[in-house]
């Protein structure tokens, strides 16, 4: 069996690790590889290596850094097919969807290719006689990223291209469930000419995460994952004086008004609820049918959910693959059962689905639960599976109130032909990313990504301009030239002009 090793200082290594975790092919339900689980000594080795590399990388020129990014981007294009298949094999998502996340991640690399522009400072001439003020931003040092299983290449790419392009060195602790692609990314960086030690991968579980959070040599931690762990990471890392960005879970509602094109809305709800088997932080997990949209919408959703082709991710005819683990499948089907027990109506029930030839795979079919109410577990919990809960609201106000009462605030969408209703919705809803007739409003790489409330702990969204701000700190210089001794402005009172 292949053992996936860490990548430290430009080469794979076992380090001090003795523990491993199994890595599954979710479509077969079988273990295919194992991954090393780091001890604190491995994290320490990575930090020492990254700190040494920072001494020169932090001082490298902008053109040196952007050259690496351009080459890295070309290699990502060239190796896209191989990467997509590797992601699909460990995550379960269909290959075409894996390609999608590679492309969206690559867009952050493209943003990083233009880092020279994003890093421009400002300059104020002659703020006082002979005095100018200017500022510029410098890297922090060693930064770390801790990432979830659901986007094994895209989410880390929300972090490391910007951290590295701004002059930092980076340690990635990817999810232990689909770790392989991170090592391939490390190889591509090396091929692109990135000096050894600038990008490192340490695989592991809670022990590795705790070692990162406790390590005094790490300046900043970026985390994306579930809300309880995001809160833990934020609390622990800020307590040790680190900068932290911590993005959490979600419960994303799509509101459908009676004036919407129901076929169009249902097509998009189906894609957004069941794509990647619902394992996206921006997946639509609640459809809010307003007024008389209700029954008609549910009828169309039923037809479309039943038509989704479920199968292994490497079969080109599959539209939806399995979920990531057996435990995940058990949690999802348990929440569907509890929803039905608590009064929801199963319009489509995917719990019994088997895929011929893949009987042991972790498959759950598309599921639509109607008449879900906010007190049900299937509504309160983040299901993170192919389950669309439909709830009813009498008015737009009621729909907005429902969304605003939810503890999460990652993404939301409205489907309508009324500009006035859409405008009101986007102004009043307490959510960070909003779609108008767009179901999954993930901002482009030159904007920043981040939810509100329990979907983002602290105050730092990720990538785009916020990413540049996060991975750098500003210096502001006030300078006087020429120095004129005879000028009588060296007073003991505070200077005012
Ligand atoms: P997770 O929180 O279980 O794991 C995320 C990372 O934390 C992994 O690297 C994991 O090894 C580590 N981890 C897990 N348990 C830990 C513990 N007890 N102590 C320290 N570290 C621990 O998340 P997941 O299941 O891999 O991913 C799914 C979750 O991520 C969902 O909640 C989803 O909404 C969220 N997510 C959010 C966004 C966003 O942008 N807001 C994006 C993607 C995923």
TrEMBL record:
The keyword Iron does not apply. SUPFAM superfamilies: ALDH-like. Its EC number is 1.2.1.27. Residues 17-477 form the Aldehyde dehydrogenase domain. The keyword Oxidoreductase applies. CDD domains: ALDH_F6_MMSDH. It comes from Glycomyces terrestris. GO terms for molecular function: methylmalonate-semialdehyde dehydrogenase (acylating, NAD) activity. Signal peptide: none annotated. This is methylmalonate-semialdehyde dehydrogenase (CoA acylating).
């Amino acid at each position: 069996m292949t053992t996936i090793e860490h990548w430290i200082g430009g080469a794979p290594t076992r380090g001090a690790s003795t523990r491993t975790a199994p890595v599954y092919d979710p479509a077969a339900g079988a273990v295919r590889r194992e991954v090393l689980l780091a001890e604190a000594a491995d994290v320490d080795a990575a930090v020492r290596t990254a700190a040494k590399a920072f001494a020169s990388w932090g001082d490298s020129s902008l053109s040196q850094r952007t050259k690496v990014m351009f080459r890295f981007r070309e290699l990502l294009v060239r190796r896209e097919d191989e990467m997509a298949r590797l992601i699909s094999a460990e995550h379960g998502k269909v290959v075409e969807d894996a390609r999608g996340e590679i492309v969206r991640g690559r867009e952050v690399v493209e943003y990083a290719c233009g880092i020279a522009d994003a890093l421009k400072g400002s300059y104020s001439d002659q703020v006082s006689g002979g005095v100018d003020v200017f500022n510029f931003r410098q890297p922090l040092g060693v930064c770390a990223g801790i990432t979830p299983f659901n986007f094994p290449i895209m989410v880390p790419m929300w972090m490391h291209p910007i951290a590295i392009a701004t002059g930092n060195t980076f340690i990635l602790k990817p999810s232990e469930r689909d770790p392989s692609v991170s090592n391939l990314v490390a190889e591509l960086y090396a091929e692109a000419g990135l000096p050894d030690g600038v990008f490192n991968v340490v695989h592991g579980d809670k022990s590795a995460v705790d070692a990162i959070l406790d390590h005094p040599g790490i300046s900043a931690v970026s985390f994306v994952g579930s809300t309880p762990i995001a809160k833990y990471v934020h609390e622990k890392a800020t307590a040790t004086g680190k900068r932290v960005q911590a993005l959490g879970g979600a419960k994303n509602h799509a509101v459908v008004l009676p004036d919407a094109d129901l076929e169009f809305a249902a097509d998009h709800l189906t894609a957004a609820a069941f794509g990647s088997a619902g394992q996206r932080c921006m997946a639509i997990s609640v459809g809010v049918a307003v007024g008389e949209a209700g029954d008609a919408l549910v009828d169309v959703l039923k037809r479309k959910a039943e038509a989704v082709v479920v199968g292994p991710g490497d079969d080109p005819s599959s539209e939806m693959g399995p979920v990531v683990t057996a435990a995940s499948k058990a949690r999802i089907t348990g929440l569907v059962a509890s929803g039905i027990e608590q009064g929801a109506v199963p319009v489509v029930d995917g719990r019994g689905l088997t895929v011929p030839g893949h009987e042991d795979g972790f498959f759950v079919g598309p599921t639509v639960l109607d008449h879900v109410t906010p007190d049900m577990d299937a509504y309160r919990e983040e299901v993170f599976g192919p389950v669309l809960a439909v709830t009813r609201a009498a008015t737009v106000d009621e729909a907005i109130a429902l969304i605003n009462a939810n503890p999460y605030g990652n993404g939301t969408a409205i489907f309508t032909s009324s500009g006035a209703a859409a405008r009101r919705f986007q102004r009043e809803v307490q959510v960070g990313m909003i779609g108008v007739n767009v179901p999954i409003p993930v901002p482009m790489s030159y904007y920043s990504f981040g939810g509100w409330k329990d979907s983002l702990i602290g105050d730092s969204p990720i990538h785009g301009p916020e990413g540049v701000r996060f991975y750098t700190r500003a210096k502001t210089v006030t300078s006087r030239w020429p120095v004129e001794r005879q000028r009588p402005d060296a007073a003991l009172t505070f200077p005012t002009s």
